[in-house]
Amino acid sequence: FAEGIMMCYFGSWAVWRPGNGRFDVDDIDPQLCTHLVFGFAGLTNVTWEIEVLDTWNELCEDWGRCAFNRFTALKEQNPNLKTLIAVGGWSEGSVDYSVMAADPVKRKTFIDSSIALTLAHDFDGFDMDWEYPANRGGAPQDKENFITLMQEMKVALDAHGLMLTCAVSMGKGTIDTAYDIPAMNQVFDYINLMAYDFHGAWETFTHHNAPLYAHPDDEGDAIPFNVDFGVNYWIENGASPEKLTLGIGTYGRCYTLDNSHITGYYAPAGNPGHQGPYTRTPGVLGYNEICEYQQADPGSWTTVVDPVMNEPYTYFLGNNIWCGYDDAASVAIKADYAKNKGLAGTMVWSLETDDFLGLCGRKFDLIKTMVEAFDGGIVFTTPE
């Protein structure tokens, strides 16, 4: 790992998934990533402290499963590994963070409790995933208050030699309202670009979860909905490339086609794709689910790499599901892109939807491919 950062998020709720989808701390390969990020802790609007969201899984008290401690103990198997605790995420929303960030007393309560939790479980740092300041019910002044909160957090973390990172939006409208980029560039060690969820079943047509470049038919507000635009926009507005990690998704966004004869980009699709057995969320399939489906019935799944796009899509006319996702070839292109842009490395959401069991190839093939492409050599040669 001499060269690139590999920032890997862990969605800790995957421990409750059935069958081959179940993924726990012990399923993480400690040699895979430079940084492991535990998703997620939250914020309680009762006391304004950091909140453990799944106490029985994450803590040791009351015969709990000790996930935090087991997660940071992965460092024993890789002395160079850094572990971080992430706070926020999509489900936590924005409103409580907005209220907390506006009040110096609430900020101090949140920061003090966050430092205590980080130290108690031997994390190496703190990852702020407020989604998003000044959006989703937040207030316009969040942009400024987010910086104040993070400056105060940085002082507290620095006293203990701990890292501060964040995960951020790649949507132009969100960036413009949420982020004072030059100030963020000063305060964060790394800024993780969530370069996915550009399109999905909230729209009425098929498109890719994470297009590297615009599709020729993109127009109007949709023209910036791609990875390249977002990376350039962050840099042009004051982010140092060497602080940015390029987020790559190990999942697809899926639709139900309206018409089985119209199957390309911008095909009419009024509904989300059927939920998968593990992620159990309409409109989303993990790469592990997609590759298992394709392997189980290879003759019925059609996979296409449109020459105008870097990423594949796949569809199955048995139930008209259509998914735009990333495979080994497309994540290699994205990691190479990140390298050529001078970024710090890559980030992945998330460990538990890669092919971690190796049912379709080598274990964690997408993450290994990212590292190999960014670092420019075969890294993972150990037999499995």
Automatic annotation (TrEMBL):
Domain of life: Eukaryota
Keywords: Glycosidase, Hydrolase
Boundaries of every GH18 domain copy: 4-377
InterPro entries: Chitinase_II/V-like_cat, Chitinase_insertion_sf, GH, Glyco_hydro18_cat, Glyco_hydro_18_chit_AS, Glycosyl_Hydrlase_18
Gene3D superfamilies registered for this protein in UniProt: 3.10.50.10, Glycosidases
Cellular-component GO terms for this entry: extracellular region
SMART domains tied to this protein: Glyco_18
Entry keyword Hydrolase: yes
Recorded GO MF terms: chitin binding; chitinase activity
GO biological process: carbohydrate metabolic process; chitin catabolic process
Family matches, as SUPFAM superfamilies: (Trans)glycosidases, Chitinase insertion domain
Family statement drawn from the similarity comment of this UniProt entry: Belongs to the glycosyl hydrolase 18 family.
Descriptive protein name: GH18 domain-containing protein
Native species: Meganyctiphanes norvegica (Northern krill)
